[in-house]
Write a structure and sequence with these properties.
By secondary structure, this protein is of the alpha+beta class. It contains twelve helices and 13 strands.
Length: about 450
């Protein structure tokens, strides 16, 4: 009996270890909101030192640093993240996506926490975007241009490689009652994807980032590479259909009218709203095995993103910003794409547990029965849904642009859901400037960078 109690206590400790990530992530987001970057960085830097979550910890550290205005650390983190995600040793860069479709079988004695974390496509694109922004804020425009060209390549390759991988998802299978197992996987995955439908409806896939296309277009145009800029603007207008700023630049690309005009200035703005929802664990009872259940990740607030009213007072009066990137939708779609693999692994592990119990009972040996029960208890209790994801990302990004601004010093009016504030901006003739604003709690945070001059 004491042995059994010891096993239960051990299982409890394992569960506590799994839950520590969720609590740490929640604490880090809360710390950022109250301006406590040091506490948030302690969490992310510890994560970056872990064996299986180092890639995630690096981008979390970069993002927290950028929100705190520490651009040197942010740039270094995003450089490290991109170098880890993209192999430059080949003739052409190779993107490291791990198990793209999320269907590889992990060891049945462990759970998905034992798998190494790889950045998903939307996280890679955002790491590229933030790396470019950090370089610009550090005055390293040439490096930002290099990574802009890399971003163009990566976005093209994600569509070709990751999209193709998703089409090759393995058929959910198992051992023994294979048809029943496949049916159970299909049922659970279908139910969970249906729950995510409202969240993912705003995007057509999980790897397109129209804001990144638009940013590369602005950089290339300011550098005098009009042909390259036109390609990026067209892709932004296509992937971000309905966004008036993307569509205006796509039309400019078709007419060949560069901006800003002689003697005028251009101001582009990226505004970020809040934080993307965090994943939580959801326990699902199995119909196959009445005494068993599995834990899978889901989103506690899985509804569609609710747009905010964001406007900027330029020289021609206040005008609204437009939603450029729905990060919440990308996050939900990524989970949806991985759901079949997640459920498959967990149902297969449950089948292993049932087999262990059955073998223990069939042995007729009390010690074998107890040993099987203890082993089963430890494995079941230790398995918790893998809720790791980049939690300090914004819920969404908005964009605003004015190509024809009079040079001078501005107190730019910013109004968010009826609450107004001002941000100082200075513009010189022929200058293209980028203003980045984040609403992450505790007031607006902003940084500005000169992209180029004509």
């Amino acid at each position: 009996m004491n042995f059994r109690l010891t096993a239960i206590a051990t299982a409890g400790l394992l569960v506590a270890g799994c839950l520590s990530y969720d609590q740490g992530a929640a604490n880090a987001v809360a710390a950022i909101g109250r301006g406590d970057a040091a506490s948030a960085l302690k969490w992310s830097e510890d994560l970056s030192d872990s064996d299986r979550s180092s890639r995630l910890g690096v981008v979390e550290t970069g993002r927290i640093s950028m929100l705190a205005g520490s651009n040197t650390l942010a740039e270094a983190c995003f450089r490290k993240a991109i170098d880890a995600a993209i192999d430059h040793k080949e003739k052409d860069p190779v993107i490291k996506l791990g198990d793209a479709a999320g269907t590889a079988m992990a060891a049945t004695m462990t759970d998905d926490w034992s798998m190494e974390y790889y950045l998903s496509p939307y996280e890679i694109n955002l790491a590229l975007e933030y790396g470019i922004l950090a370089q610009l804020f550090n005055g390293r425009r040439e490096d930002a241009l290099v990574d802009s060209r890399l971003a163009i390549y990566v976005q093209d390759m994600l569509g070709d490689e990751y999209g193709a991988d998703l089409k090759k998802k393995e058929e959910a299978g198992g051992t023994g009652d294979a048809e029943k197992t496949r049916g159970e996987v299909a049922r659970i995955a279908g139910e969970q994807n249906a729950a995510l439908n409202e969240m993912i409806a705003a995007t057509r896939n999980s790897w397109e980032n129209p804001v990144l296309w638009w940013l590369t277009g602005i950089l290339l145009e300011a550098d005098g590479n009009w042909e390259g800029a036109k390609q990026s603007y067209r892709r932004a207008g296509t992937t971000g259909a309905g966004n008036p700023f993307f569509e205006a630049d796509m039309k400019r690309a078709d007419t060949g009218a560069p901006a800003p005009l002689a003697g005028r200035a251009k101001l582009a703005i990226i505004f970020e709203d809040g934080f993307v929802p965090r994943r939580v664990a959801l326990k699902i009872p199995l119909r196959l095995y009445a005494t068993m259940s599995i834990d899978i990740p889901t989103y506690a607030n899985a509804g569609a993103y609710v747009t905010r009213s964001v406007s900027f007072a330029g020289p021609k009066g206040a005008s609204p910003a437009a939603l450029g990137l729905n990060v919440r939708s990308l996050a939900g779609r990524t989970l949806s794409e991985a759901m079949t693999g997640i459920v498959t692994r967990n149902v297969t592990r449950a089948a292993v547990n049932v087999g262990i119990q059955a073998a223990g009972r069939a042995s007729g040996n009390d010690y074998m029965k107890l040993g099987a029960e203890i082993a089963n208890l430890i494995m079941v209790c230790a398995r918790k849904a893998d809720t790791r994801t980049w939690v300090t990302l914004p819920d969404a990004q908005y964009v605003w642009c004015e190509d024809d601004m009079e040079p001078g010093d501005y107190q730019l009016g910013v109004t968010v859901d009826g609450v107004s504030s001002t941000i100082p901006v200075s513009l010189a003739a022929g200058e293209t400037k980028l203003l980045w604003i984040a609403d992450a709690g505790g007031g607006l945070r902003h940084q500005c960078a000169i992209i180029g001059k004509r």
